[in-house]
Amino acid sequence: MSRYLIYIFLTLAFFGCTGDDNANLPPFEERVSTAITTLRSDLTAPGLGWRLEYKPTPESGVYFMLLEFTDKDVTIQSDVVANDGLFFEQTIPYRIDNALGLELILETFGAFHYLFELDQATFGAEFEFIFKEKNGDNLIFESKTDLFNPTILTFVPASSGDEDLFSREIAKNLDAFGTVAPQALVQVTPQQQIVLEDRNISVFWSLDTQKRNLSSQFAAEGTDIEDILMNGGILLNHNTGYALLDGFMVLQDPLFFSLGGQNITIDRIALEDFDMNAPNLCPTEPNNGPRYQGQSPGVGDVTMLSSLLSTDGQGFQANVYTVNAQFVFDGEGNSLAQDGIIAERFPGATGFIFLYGVQLINPDIPIYSVGLILEDGEIYVREFEQTVTEINRVKVNLINNFYHSGTPNPGDQAGLIAVTDEIFAGGVTYAFDFPAFPASGVSVYRLFNPCNRYEVFLVQ
Question: Which of 138, 149, 206, 249 is 20 to 30 A from 397, comparing alpha carbons?
Fold first, then answer.
């Protein structure tokens, strides 16, 4: 009997509660309209708008933004450097919908849309946000488009000094370091040398200024490249995002290492003085590279320079490397076999060959030599001085000793001299990994010449 009484009680309680609630609730459309009006009122309430430190993905850095809403549009100030400063301040319309919940949608192209489209819209940024809650004075949103671990955006009421935190000039200047990176087919992330002047230590990292992240690769004692190559160093394998705030590059995950009896922690760098008078990465050119000077708290004076030293290319070691002649490019990304000196001097050339310290069956072939595979399958190479890979630097000092597997035609030797002199002008190249076929196990590298920006893609 007691079980039946309990059942009757629960049934009456259920229908009584739900029936009363449904009777007292406004119609669904009215509730939605009220929720939209409330969110719009909350968005427009702060007198100075909202401050947002926007981190689109766990791996990316932070973009600093200020947002000020009216009933119909939002003015977005940001430190996103693109489109000639278009996104520094822009007013665009927005709307609030109800689908998966209340959704804030930015309707026309702006800073959020630009970030969304990076890497063919695979970066992970967003311009549609689901409203989650009001937490004190803050408004909490999450990404609508992230399938897993959606990005959380916290709108914080802005204060009067927030506009002074923008460091847009630094953001623009940092882009100058990307102009010296290899760019044919796929651009290499710019490399930098961070000289800790008071510690006689250099840190080498790659810097992605679009996604605001950096990868610290190695550190070494010394400030001069030749000393660094002689001293060696330690691997760091440290990745972090960064923000640009109030004149500082702020590392979200501080870099810590010990070297030469010194403990080093870099959590932020004040970037103060920028110029284009740094040493050129081509040893025969005058100084015209980008340079930032500043300080890091607890570390001392810091100089930021462009570099091409990278552990990404240290696997380029003694072997035989070849490639289709189409994959030799000038500084504008044009194939030398289509519209360049290879097409001019050897129009039938099918391949490019780089013999790096390997003895082939024929002992007459110089084990350090570079040249072409001709249309009849013959090879024609020119010797260069014996060398080794120094981190990823490879010197190619050409000498006039030649090998032709057949009989050269008149003018071929002068042609090969012209081709190799042009490609390896300056005598210094840098190797970089090119992960074209990671599943196949085939190693592909590119040699980059900083003196003329020529690039050669080579298959091991």
Answer: 206
Note whether 345 and 330 are same-domain residues: yes
Q: Which domain holds residue 386?
A: 313-459
44: CATH? 2.40.128
**∠ CA 207-328-284 to the nearest 5 degrees?**
65
The pLDDT tens digits of the residues spanning 57-82 come to 999 999 999 999 999 999 999 999 99
Residue 8 forms part of a structural domain: no
Provide the phi-psi class of 361: left if phi over 0, else alpha when psi is between -120 and 50, else beta.
alpha
The pTM assigned to this predicted structure is 0.88
